[in-house]
DNA sequence: GAGTGGTCTAGACCACCGC
DNA sequence: CGGTGGTCTAGACCACTCT
């Protein structure tokens, strides 16, 4: 990665810098390799550290880099494909899904969620927390809102707490027959609790997948799942999802 | 989910600022209203402009604000739902889809695209440009790669150029019977040309939807569509997509 | 303790928009 | 032209991780 001239600016410095770095990543670095630190890089390119950081932020957003405080900046592997809306991620509680139960509480949901569930604004619902791991890394955190009406057999004292209680709720929920589902994907930023679970800093970019499960003519449950946008490529549909990446990426020894 | 709590660890200023601003947007501003300029806002909150901007950037990423150089910062309307993978966005060229033809060239695609298409690395393909408009705003720009093998009847001199040529390619393509499709969604940043088409600055966050169309046992076409991440919520599935937003948003007169 | 990325400051100039 | 957001600088200190 030789020192390069950035001259006579038709385009912003950080943009040009990003291009130069991107090409250097393809040709001179291996996956997992550690880059020089930000102060050195900035000096090498003759820019202020803030400008260099702007370029690094973009590359991290695109999944090319991974930065960790106290450690350094490393070359990220290609994004992993994560299946959404297939066997691994269908009617919650189905056997063989990719989600791990965390805990479950009974509380009043945010107003917008209550509206989507068609429950009363002050009516408490079961709030299930689950997490999803893929290739040994946490990729998503989920809040699953289940109205009491969807699990009528469940009494408050039925299950203790934590994972067993999650399983009890899902077991009851799964007695309903799934009739259909709506799904939406949008960009968001990680709340503090999700960030912690995803091993990222608060505000990190996430893909928010909102799914409404329909059964018995009603909204039986609502899932709000936040996926790490830097490491995940969400795949839909029949067979597995397309993989498009940039250039020759090598593996670190 | 109220988090008004004493902190054992200090919260970054920009994060706190974002929360304050977010609440102010819900309670004191209407959609379309113009915020005070960045210098005034920074002074009002007693922070440097760069810090204030960090908070605004997050809010823009979440679709709460819209900023335009030379104009100002305005309160954004709720994200619009954009259907993906339904009648409006299925087999390209199907009647009644939501895409408008732009132009078409014959060129060698990027190596990664050639690999997905299973064509030779140096083999030129038809590259169709289309754009998608919703609610009067441009929401997506697409590059559709069509191998020559998928449109065998098309000769080079068949159609002149521009939109008519796009239609000719799609008409030929549509003679194949669609057998299935793979789809993937990931976060990206807008390239210079896409940014221009989407009326954003280069590097703006986008949702990249990659779709592989399967017909005759092959990959008949590959679509790479970049959607504005700030204004769009991609909806999938049966009926229309869930709408979850933050709080009481009012309409500007 | 040394070294990393994360936050923050107080300035400056530039590119764009509307009047 | 004046006002807006966008870029850039050269510092400083903090939070974290590793050794």
UniProtKB/TrEMBL annotation, chains A, B:
> What keyword terms does UniProt attach to this protein?
DNA-binding, Transcription, Transcription regulation
Which Pfam families does this one have? GntR, UTRA
Per the database record, which ranges form the HTH gntR-type domain? 11-78
Fetch the CDD domains from UniProt.
WHTH_GntR
Task: Write down the InterPro entries for this protein, in alphabetical order.
Answer: Bact_HTH_transcr_reg, Chorismate_lyase_/UTRA_dom_sf, Tscrpt_reg_HTH_GntR, UTRA, WH-like_DNA-bd_sf, WH_DNA-bd_sf
Residues crossing the lipid bilayer are: none
Does the record's keyword annotation contain Membrane?
A: no
| A single GO molecular function term of this UniProt record | DNA binding
A Gene Ontology biological process in which this protein takes part is:
negative regulation of DNA-templated transcription
Organism superkingdom = Bacteria
* The protein's name in its UniProt record: GntR family transcriptional regulator
> What's the source species for this entry?
Streptomyces sp. R39
């Amino acid at each position: 990665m030789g020192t390069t001239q950035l001259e006579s600016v038709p385009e912003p410095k950080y943009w040009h810098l990003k291009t130069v770095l991107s090409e250097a990543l393809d040709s001179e670095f291996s996956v997992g390799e550690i880059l020089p630190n930000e102060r050195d890089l900035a000096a090498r390119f003759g820019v202020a550290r803030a400008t260099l950081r702007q370029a690094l932020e973009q590359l991290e957003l695109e999944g090319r880099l991974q930065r960790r405080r106290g450690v350094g900046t490393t070359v990220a592997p290609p994004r992993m494909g994560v299946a959404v809306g297939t066997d691994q991620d269908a009617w919650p509680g189905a056997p063989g899904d990719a989600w791990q139960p965390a805990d479950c509480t009974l509380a009043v949901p945010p107003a917008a969620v209550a509206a989507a569930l068609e429950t009363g604004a002050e009516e408490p619902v079961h709030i299930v927390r689950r997490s999803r791991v893929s290739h040994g890394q946490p990729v998503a955190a989920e809040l699953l809102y289940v109205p009491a009406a969807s699990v009528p057999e469940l009494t408050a004292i039925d299950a203790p707490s934590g994972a067993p209680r999650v399983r009890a709720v899902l077991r009851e929920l799964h007695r309903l027959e799934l009739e259909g589902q709506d799904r939406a994907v949008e960009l968001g930023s990680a709340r503090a609790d999700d960030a912690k679970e995803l091993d990222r800093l608060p505000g990190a970019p996430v893909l928010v997948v909102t799914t409404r499960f329909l059964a018995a003519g009603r909204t039986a449950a609502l899932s709000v799942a936040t996926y790490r946008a830097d490491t995940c490529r969400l795949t839909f549909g029949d067979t597995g999802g397309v993989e498009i990446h940039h250039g020759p990426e090598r593996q670190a020894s």
